[in-house]
Amino acid sequence: MKQDDINTMVSLSRRRFLAGSALLGGSMLLPGFMNSVWAAGSDAPEKKEIRVGFIPLTDCASVVMAAVKKFDEKYGIKIILSKESSWASVRDKLVSGELDAAHVLYGLVYGLQLGVSGPQHDMAMLMTLNNNGQAITLSNQLKAAGVTDAASLKKTIEGSAKGTYTFAQTFPTGTHAMWLYYWLANAGIHPFNDVRNVVVPPPQMVMNMKIGNMSGYCVGEPWNQRAILDGIGFTAATTQEIWPDHPEKILGTTSAWVAANPNTARALTAAVLEASRWIDTSDANRIETAKAIAGRAYVNTSPETIQGRMLGDYDNGLGKKWKDAHGMRFFNDGAVNYPYLSDGMWFLTQHKRWGLIDADPDYLAVAKTINRTDLYKQAATAVGGINLPASDMRSSTLFDGKVWDGSNPADYANSFAMKR
Fold first, then answer.
1. N or C terminus of the chain: which is more exposed, having fewer CB within 10 Å?
2. What pLDDT was estimated at residue 27?
3. Which pLDDT score, from 0 to 100, does residue 193 have?
4. pLDDT of residue 42
5. What is the DSSP string of 373-387?
6. Which CATH superfamily hosts domain 49-131+247-309+331-338+360-391?
7. Cβ atoms 240, 326 nearer than 8 A
8. What does the domain layout of the chain look like in residue ranges?
């Protein structure tokens, strides 16, 4: 399309432009959708009320605040928030249609697409909700035994019978499992052969550690900070130490739901994207967010438990305090939210590494199927002022020195000395 044609299109009504923005950008909507919408001259949401699930974690903030601050109403929808007890519950309700969309683990959605985290379902990822902000917590019993980091943990484990120590993560294909396994393996601790591995829902982590059910866990905030405040554990590592500005939770749904409700999916993405930008605009907004999500209907803890790490103020429970340069981010000038294909592909490489999938999939094809860059770009246009990257891939260096850029995923997946 020539530039003059584009300028002509832009001069049409904003709503018609949004409906056609995917066409202008050269990407495709579902067959038949664009023509019918363009002919009707309407991008009105197919559903007005959208049931969105979330788990009580700090990183549910943008989904919650999209409703609390009424960003949803701006885009002609109403978000009905549904507090869920576990990631398994989120999975089941997404695929059954009880939830329209959810604040969900990146790897859970990819696992469903491949049929390894439940019966196979075609899934869709609309946007990334946050970067960073998870951690690995170890018990004060380990601290009393002289453990303060991964190296000292390895020595303690080596001196004990295999399976003596239990570590928890939140879902077998999820982000927390992958961060925990990566951290343990980097220290020479096999996450399956050297320790016992269990799944525990995020809000139950602290209580389970308190009664001695595990020696360590990986989970999102505020449940790492809560362990310190309750005097039962300390932060051995933050996940941003493992991978600075790593992808974390996403706004996920099923492919079928997007096919039936493309305008609604775009409106939902726009509302959550605008909430993400609002949160990251100022510390005052972050403090307001911490107070809001601390309520019983959401995370159900004190605002103080959430606020510190949300502002990047860390205390590891061992006497170290710092301002984290890679604290939890919800927007970061749009860099957080773009559904980079390489981000999704990374989780597949770790699923292959740990035997969750038997063979290398077509990494890029899977990512292109799930990550709806087309809808995200339309939503970003609707919101306005959102920077879009030049590429669907990004490059990152993890704490072991490995560079991940999505260029050779099979080689990357098979390059690790420790695997299952």
1. N
2. 32
3. 96
4. 75
5. HHHHHHHHHHH-S--
6. Periplasmic binding protein-like II (3.40.190.10)
7. yes
8. 49-131+247-309+331-338+360-391
Q: Count other C-beta atoms under 10 Å from residue 86's C-beta.
A: 17
Tokens of 91: 């999975």
Q: Which two tokens stand for residue 185?
A: 């393996």
- Closest by CA position to 129, among listed 189, 60, 203, 181: 60
Q: What is the pLDDT of residues 362-394, one digit of tens each?
A: 999 999 999 999 999 999 999 999 999 999 999
Contact call for residues 252 and 123 (beta carbons, < 8 A)? yes
- The DSSP result for 94-146, as a single string, is HHHTS-SEEEEEHHHHHHHHHTSSSS---EEEEEE--B--EEEEEEHHHHHTT
Task: Specify whether the CB–CB gap between 91 and 112 falls below 8 A.
Answer: yes
Read off the amino acid at residue 102.
A
Kindly tell me the burial class for residue 185, based on how many C-beta atoms sit within 10 Å of its own C-beta (0-12, 13-18, 19 or more): buried
Alpha helices in 170-282 (DSSP H): 175-186, 205-210, 223-229, 239-242, 255-260, 262-281
